[in-house]
Amino acid sequence: MKRLSVIVPVYNEEKMVPRTSAVISKILEKAKIDYEILFVNDGSKDMSWPAIAKECENNPKVRGICFSRNFGKEAAMFAGLECVRGECAVIIDCDLQHPPEKIVEMYRLWEAGYEVVEGVKSDRGKESLFHRILAKLFYKIISRITKIDMENASDFKLMDRKVIDVLNAMPERNVFFRALSSWVGFKSTQVSFKVHEREEGVSKWSAWALIKYAFSNIVSFTAAPMQIVTVMGTGFFFMAVILGIQSLVYKFMGRALEGFTTVIMIELLLGSIMMISMGIIGFYISKMYEELKGRPRYIIVQKLNEQCEE
Ligand code: UDP
Ligand code: MG
User: Fold this and answer.
1) Which residue in 16, 108, 205, 225 has its CB near the most CB atoms, within 10 A?
2) Strand-pair partners of 65
3) Distance CA 224, CA 270 (A)
4) pLDDT-based confidence at 258, cuts 50/70/90?
5) Which pairs count as long-range contacts for 228-231, CB under 8 Å and 24+ apart, including other chains?
6) How far, rounded to the nearest angstrom, does the alpha carbon of residue 78 sit from its chain's CA centroid?
7) Can you tell me the mean pLDDT for 90-115?
Protein backbone atom coordinates (compact mmCIF):
# COMPACT_ATOMS: atom_id res chain seq x y z
CA MET A 1 0.00 0.00 0.00
CA LYS A 2 1.11 3.50 -0.75
CA ARG A 3 2.06 5.60 2.20
CA LEU A 4 1.71 9.32 2.71
CA SER A 5 4.22 11.07 4.95
CA VAL A 6 3.12 14.21 6.71
CA ILE A 7 5.99 16.50 7.72
CA VAL A 8 5.26 18.96 10.50
CA PRO A 9 7.95 21.50 11.46
CA VAL A 10 7.60 22.40 15.12
CA TYR A 11 9.01 25.36 16.96
CA ASN A 12 7.51 26.15 20.37
CA GLU A 13 4.15 24.55 19.68
CA GLU A 14 3.66 22.44 22.83
CA LYS A 15 -0.07 23.08 22.85
CA MET A 16 -0.51 22.42 19.16
CA VAL A 17 1.41 19.15 18.84
CA PRO A 18 -1.25 16.86 20.41
CA ARG A 19 -4.01 18.68 18.61
CA THR A 20 -2.36 18.62 15.20
CA SER A 21 -1.41 14.98 15.61
CA ALA A 22 -4.97 14.03 16.55
CA VAL A 23 -6.62 16.05 13.79
CA ILE A 24 -4.35 14.80 11.02
CA SER A 25 -4.49 11.15 12.04
CA LYS A 26 -8.25 11.29 12.35
CA ILE A 27 -8.68 12.78 8.90
CA LEU A 28 -6.29 10.34 7.24
CA GLU A 29 -7.74 7.31 8.98
CA LYS A 30 -11.19 8.33 7.90
CA ALA A 31 -9.99 8.73 4.31
CA LYS A 32 -8.32 5.28 4.54
CA ILE A 33 -4.91 6.62 3.62
CA ASP A 34 -1.87 4.87 5.05
CA TYR A 35 0.29 7.51 6.66
CA GLU A 36 3.10 8.51 8.95
CA ILE A 37 3.35 11.85 10.70
CA LEU A 38 6.85 13.17 11.21
CA PHE A 39 7.25 15.98 13.70
CA VAL A 40 10.51 17.86 13.29
CA ASN A 41 11.33 19.63 16.52
CA ASP A 42 13.31 22.66 15.45
CA GLY A 43 14.99 23.38 18.79
CA SER A 44 11.83 24.37 20.63
CA LYS A 45 12.40 26.06 23.96
CA ASP A 46 9.14 24.84 25.46
CA MET A 47 7.80 21.34 26.08
CA SER A 48 7.18 20.52 22.40
CA TRP A 49 9.61 17.61 22.31
CA PRO A 50 8.09 15.78 25.29
CA ALA A 51 4.72 16.41 23.66
CA ILE A 52 5.98 14.82 20.45
CA ALA A 53 7.47 11.90 22.41
CA LYS A 54 4.09 11.31 24.00
CA GLU A 55 2.37 11.25 20.61
CA CYS A 56 4.98 8.77 19.38
CA GLU A 57 4.19 6.49 22.29
CA ASN A 58 0.46 6.62 21.71
CA ASN A 59 0.53 6.21 17.98
CA PRO A 60 3.20 4.13 16.20
CA LYS A 61 2.52 6.06 13.00
CA VAL A 62 3.81 9.22 14.60
CA ARG A 63 7.55 9.80 14.41
CA GLY A 64 9.75 12.54 15.72
CA ILE A 65 13.16 13.97 15.07
CA CYS A 66 14.80 16.52 17.31
CA PHE A 67 17.34 19.17 16.30
CA SER A 68 20.17 20.20 18.58
CA ARG A 69 19.03 23.83 18.29
CA ASN A 70 16.78 26.06 16.21
CA PHE A 71 17.81 25.81 12.57
CA GLY A 72 14.76 27.47 11.01
CA LYS A 73 11.68 26.15 9.27
CA GLU A 74 13.51 25.63 5.97
CA ALA A 75 15.98 23.26 7.63
CA ALA A 76 13.15 21.48 9.42
CA MET A 77 11.34 20.87 6.14
CA PHE A 78 14.46 19.50 4.47
CA ALA A 79 15.21 17.26 7.43
CA GLY A 80 11.66 15.97 7.12
CA LEU A 81 12.08 15.27 3.43
CA GLU A 82 15.27 13.35 4.10
CA CYS A 83 13.76 11.21 6.84
CA VAL A 84 10.34 10.32 5.45
CA ARG A 85 9.72 7.02 3.73
CA GLY A 86 6.35 7.51 2.09
CA GLU A 87 5.70 7.39 -1.65
CA CYS A 88 4.67 11.00 -1.30
CA ALA A 89 4.96 13.61 1.41
CA VAL A 90 3.06 16.67 2.41
CA ILE A 91 4.42 19.54 4.50
CA ILE A 92 2.04 21.29 6.83
CA ASP A 93 2.38 23.91 9.59
CA CYS A 94 1.88 22.79 13.15
CA ASP A 95 -0.47 25.68 13.98
CA LEU A 96 -3.28 24.25 11.79
CA GLN A 97 -3.27 27.41 9.70
CA HIS A 98 -3.06 25.08 6.74
CA PRO A 99 -6.35 23.19 6.75
CA PRO A 100 -5.52 19.47 7.21
CA GLU A 101 -8.67 18.39 5.34
CA LYS A 102 -6.92 19.57 2.20
CA ILE A 103 -4.32 16.84 2.59
CA VAL A 104 -6.89 14.33 1.39
CA GLU A 105 -7.69 16.44 -1.65
CA MET A 106 -3.98 16.74 -2.41
CA TYR A 107 -3.48 13.02 -1.97
CA ARG A 108 -6.28 12.26 -4.44
CA LEU A 109 -4.66 14.55 -6.99
CA TRP A 110 -1.38 12.74 -6.43
CA GLU A 111 -3.16 9.43 -7.02
CA ALA A 112 -4.45 10.94 -10.24
CA GLY A 113 -0.86 11.38 -11.37
CA TYR A 114 0.29 14.80 -10.26
CA GLU A 115 3.79 14.90 -8.82
CA VAL A 116 3.62 18.25 -7.06
CA VAL A 117 0.44 19.63 -5.53
CA GLU A 118 0.91 23.18 -4.33
CA GLY A 119 -1.24 24.71 -1.66
CA VAL A 120 -2.17 28.23 -2.71
CA LYS A 121 -3.61 30.75 -0.29
CA SER A 122 -6.96 32.11 -1.38
CA ASP A 123 -6.41 34.93 1.08
CA ARG A 124 -3.56 35.72 3.40
CA GLY A 125 -5.46 35.55 6.68
CA LYS A 126 -4.88 38.06 9.43
CA GLU A 127 -1.56 39.86 9.15
CA SER A 128 -0.30 43.23 10.22
CA LEU A 129 -0.18 45.98 7.59
CA PHE A 130 3.60 46.05 7.79
CA HIS A 131 3.82 42.29 7.27
CA ARG A 132 1.40 42.53 4.36
CA ILE A 133 3.37 45.27 2.58
CA LEU A 134 6.70 43.54 3.08
CA ALA A 135 5.32 40.21 1.92
CA LYS A 136 3.86 41.85 -1.16
CA LEU A 137 7.15 43.51 -2.08
CA PHE A 138 9.10 40.33 -1.48
CA TYR A 139 6.78 38.22 -3.62
CA LYS A 140 6.85 40.82 -6.42
CA ILE A 141 10.62 40.53 -6.53
CA ILE A 142 10.78 36.77 -6.20
CA SER A 143 7.99 36.22 -8.75
CA ARG A 144 9.87 38.34 -11.22
CA ILE A 145 13.06 36.39 -10.65
CA THR A 146 11.60 32.91 -10.77
CA LYS A 147 8.96 33.81 -13.38
CA ILE A 148 6.50 31.89 -11.24
CA ASP A 149 3.60 33.65 -9.59
CA MET A 150 4.42 33.24 -5.93
CA GLU A 151 2.15 35.84 -4.44
CA ASN A 152 -0.08 33.29 -2.77
CA ALA A 153 2.38 30.43 -2.57
CA SER A 154 2.89 28.61 0.70
CA ASP A 155 4.97 25.79 2.10
CA PHE A 156 1.86 23.63 2.24
CA LYS A 157 2.45 21.17 -0.56
CA LEU A 158 2.51 17.54 -1.49
CA MET A 159 5.39 16.00 -3.37
CA ASP A 160 5.97 12.69 -5.05
CA ARG A 161 8.93 10.51 -4.06
CA LYS A 162 10.69 11.45 -7.33
CA VAL A 163 10.54 15.14 -6.43
CA ILE A 164 11.67 14.45 -2.86
CA ASP A 165 14.68 12.53 -4.13
CA VAL A 166 15.61 15.39 -6.44
CA LEU A 167 15.32 17.92 -3.61
CA ASN A 168 17.33 15.70 -1.29
CA ALA A 169 20.11 15.46 -3.86
CA MET A 170 20.53 19.24 -4.07
CA PRO A 171 23.74 20.32 -2.41
CA GLU A 172 22.64 23.92 -1.75
CA ARG A 173 22.25 25.02 1.82
CA ASN A 174 20.60 28.40 1.50
CA VAL A 175 17.47 27.53 -0.36
CA PHE A 176 14.04 28.98 -0.61
CA PHE A 177 11.89 25.90 -0.43
CA ARG A 178 8.76 27.45 -1.90
CA ALA A 179 10.50 28.57 -5.05
CA LEU A 180 12.67 25.49 -5.34
CA SER A 181 9.72 23.15 -5.47
CA SER A 182 8.44 25.02 -8.53
CA TRP A 183 11.89 25.35 -10.00
CA VAL A 184 12.37 21.58 -10.19
CA GLY A 185 9.38 21.36 -12.50
CA PHE A 186 7.43 18.08 -12.65
CA LYS A 187 3.77 17.65 -13.29
CA SER A 188 2.11 19.98 -10.88
CA THR A 189 -1.23 21.37 -9.95
CA GLN A 190 -2.69 23.62 -7.29
CA VAL A 191 -5.17 23.41 -4.50
CA SER A 192 -6.39 26.61 -2.96
CA PHE A 193 -7.02 26.92 0.74
CA LYS A 194 -8.11 29.53 3.21
CA VAL A 195 -5.59 30.45 5.88
CA HIS A 196 -7.02 29.70 9.30
CA GLU A 197 -6.28 31.82 12.27
CA ARG A 198 -3.60 30.57 14.62
CA GLU A 199 -5.23 28.69 17.49
CA GLU A 200 -2.47 28.79 20.06
CA GLY A 201 0.79 30.65 20.55
CA VAL A 202 2.20 33.38 18.36
CA SER A 203 3.77 33.60 14.92
CA LYS A 204 7.49 32.98 15.10
CA TRP A 205 8.32 35.75 12.68
CA SER A 206 9.51 39.15 13.79
CA ALA A 207 9.71 41.95 11.21
CA TRP A 208 13.49 41.77 11.21
CA ALA A 209 13.45 38.00 10.81
CA LEU A 210 11.16 38.40 7.81
CA ILE A 211 13.41 40.98 6.17
CA LYS A 212 16.44 38.75 6.67
CA TYR A 213 14.51 35.75 5.35
CA ALA A 214 13.36 37.68 2.29
CA PHE A 215 16.81 38.99 1.46
CA SER A 216 18.50 35.67 1.95
CA ASN A 217 15.93 33.96 -0.28
CA ILE A 218 16.35 36.48 -3.05
CA VAL A 219 20.10 36.09 -2.88
CA SER A 220 19.84 32.31 -2.89
CA PHE A 221 17.83 32.40 -6.08
CA THR A 222 19.45 35.06 -8.22
CA ALA A 223 22.59 37.08 -8.72
CA ALA A 224 20.57 40.00 -10.10
CA PRO A 225 21.23 42.32 -7.14
CA MET A 226 24.92 42.02 -7.97
CA GLN A 227 24.17 43.19 -11.48
CA ILE A 228 22.31 46.20 -10.12
CA VAL A 229 25.72 47.40 -9.07
CA THR A 230 26.93 47.25 -12.66
CA VAL A 231 23.80 48.97 -13.95
CA MET A 232 24.10 51.77 -11.41
CA GLY A 233 27.76 52.14 -12.23
CA THR A 234 27.03 52.45 -15.94
CA GLY A 235 24.31 55.03 -15.30
CA PHE A 236 26.66 57.05 -13.19
CA PHE A 237 29.37 56.83 -15.81
CA PHE A 238 27.07 58.48 -18.37
CA MET A 239 26.06 61.13 -15.91
CA ALA A 240 29.68 61.71 -15.11
CA VAL A 241 30.52 62.18 -18.81
CA ILE A 242 27.71 64.73 -19.28
CA LEU A 243 28.59 66.59 -16.12
CA GLY A 244 32.26 66.45 -17.01
CA ILE A 245 31.64 68.03 -20.40
CA GLN A 246 29.42 70.65 -18.81
CA SER A 247 32.03 71.51 -16.20
CA LEU A 248 34.72 71.78 -18.86
CA VAL A 249 32.56 74.06 -20.98
CA TYR A 250 31.83 76.22 -17.95
CA LYS A 251 35.49 76.33 -17.09
CA PHE A 252 36.46 77.57 -20.52
CA MET A 253 33.67 80.14 -20.30
CA GLY A 254 35.20 81.27 -17.03
CA ARG A 255 32.20 80.36 -14.96
CA ALA A 256 33.71 77.71 -12.69
CA LEU A 257 33.76 77.69 -8.87
CA GLU A 258 30.02 77.73 -8.74
CA GLY A 259 28.40 74.36 -8.58
CA PHE A 260 29.84 73.40 -5.26
CA THR A 261 26.45 71.89 -4.50
CA THR A 262 26.69 69.60 -7.48
CA VAL A 263 30.08 68.36 -6.37
CA ILE A 264 28.89 67.62 -2.88
CA MET A 265 25.79 65.86 -4.15
CA ILE A 266 27.68 63.69 -6.56
CA GLU A 267 30.12 62.86 -3.83
CA LEU A 268 27.36 61.82 -1.45
CA LEU A 269 25.43 59.87 -4.03
CA LEU A 270 28.45 58.03 -5.31
CA GLY A 271 29.60 57.30 -1.81
CA SER A 272 26.30 55.80 -0.77
CA ILE A 273 25.86 53.80 -3.94
CA MET A 274 29.34 52.45 -3.62
CA MET A 275 28.71 51.39 -0.06
CA ILE A 276 25.41 49.72 -0.93
CA SER A 277 27.11 47.91 -3.79
CA MET A 278 29.85 46.67 -1.58
CA GLY A 279 27.25 45.54 0.90
CA ILE A 280 25.43 43.52 -1.75
CA ILE A 281 28.65 41.95 -2.95
CA GLY A 282 29.64 41.26 0.64
CA PHE A 283 26.35 39.52 1.25
CA TYR A 284 26.90 37.20 -1.69
CA ILE A 285 30.42 36.47 -0.59
CA SER A 286 29.22 35.60 2.89
CA LYS A 287 26.62 33.26 1.40
CA MET A 288 29.26 31.65 -0.77
CA TYR A 289 31.43 31.23 2.28
CA GLU A 290 28.58 29.49 4.05
CA GLU A 291 28.03 27.11 1.14
CA LEU A 292 31.74 26.54 0.85
CA LYS A 293 32.08 25.49 4.46
CA GLY A 294 29.61 22.77 3.64
CA ARG A 295 28.24 22.54 7.14
CA PRO A 296 25.16 20.41 7.64
CA ARG A 297 21.84 22.18 7.34
CA TYR A 298 20.76 20.81 10.69
CA ILE A 299 21.94 18.49 13.45
CA ILE A 300 19.66 15.71 14.65
CA VAL A 301 20.14 14.57 18.25
CA GLN A 302 17.27 12.16 18.64
CA LYS A 303 14.84 10.14 16.54
CA LEU A 304 11.66 8.48 17.77
CA ASN A 305 9.67 5.59 16.23
CA GLU A 306 12.39 5.26 13.64
CA GLN A 307 11.44 1.61 13.12
CA CYS A 308 7.88 2.21 11.92
CA GLU A 309 7.80 -0.24 9.03
CA GLU A 310 4.97 -1.35 6.84
N1 UDP B 1 8.70 26.93 12.56
C2 UDP B 1 9.87 26.18 12.65
N3 UDP B 1 11.05 26.81 12.92
C4 UDP B 1 11.13 28.17 13.09
C5 UDP B 1 9.94 28.92 12.96
C6 UDP B 1 8.76 28.27 12.70
O7 UDP B 1 9.85 24.96 12.50
O8 UDP B 1 12.22 28.68 13.34
C9 UDP B 1 7.41 26.25 12.27
C10 UDP B 1 6.29 26.56 13.24
O11 UDP B 1 6.28 25.71 14.37
C12 UDP B 1 5.06 26.33 12.38
C13 UDP B 1 5.53 26.76 11.00
O14 UDP B 1 6.96 26.70 11.03
O15 UDP B 1 4.68 24.96 12.33
C16 UDP B 1 5.04 28.14 10.62
O17 UDP B 1 5.44 29.07 11.60
P18 UDP B 1 4.56 30.32 12.00
O19 UDP B 1 3.14 29.91 12.21
O20 UDP B 1 5.25 30.98 13.14
O21 UDP B 1 4.68 31.21 10.69
P22 UDP B 1 3.50 32.02 9.97
O23 UDP B 1 2.32 31.11 9.89
O24 UDP B 1 3.27 33.20 10.83
O25 UDP B 1 4.09 32.34 8.64
MG1 MG C 1 1.43 30.14 11.25
Assistant:
1) 16
2) 40, 303
3) 20
4) low
5) 228/277, 228/280, 229/277, 229/280, 229/281
6) 11
7) 90
At residue 252, φ and ψ (nearest 5 deg) are -70, -25
**Which residue CA neighbors atom 23 of ligand 1 most closely?**
203
Q: How far is the CA of 95 from the centre of ligand 1 (A)?
A: 8
Q: Check if the beta carbon of residue 159 is closer than 8 Å to that of residue 116.
A: yes
What's the CA gap between 94 and 77, in Å, rounded? 12
Probe ligand 1: pick from 11, 20, 39, 134, max atoms within 8 Å of CB?
11
For the chain, the average pLDDT equals 82
Nearest CA to ligand 1 atom 8: 72
Is residue 214 pLDDT above 90, yes or no?
Answer: no
Note the pLDDT of residue 135.
78
Do the Cβ atoms of 76 and 40 come closer than 8 Å?
yes
Closest CA to 4 of 95, 111, 78, 79: 111
CA distance 18 to 168: 29
Confidence of residue 131 (pLDDT cuts 50, 70, 90): confident
- pLDDT(197) > 90: no
In the reported structure, the alpha carbon of residue 282 is separated from the centroid of ligand 2 by a whole-number distance in angstroms of 32
What pLDDT is stored for residue 308 in this prediction? 47
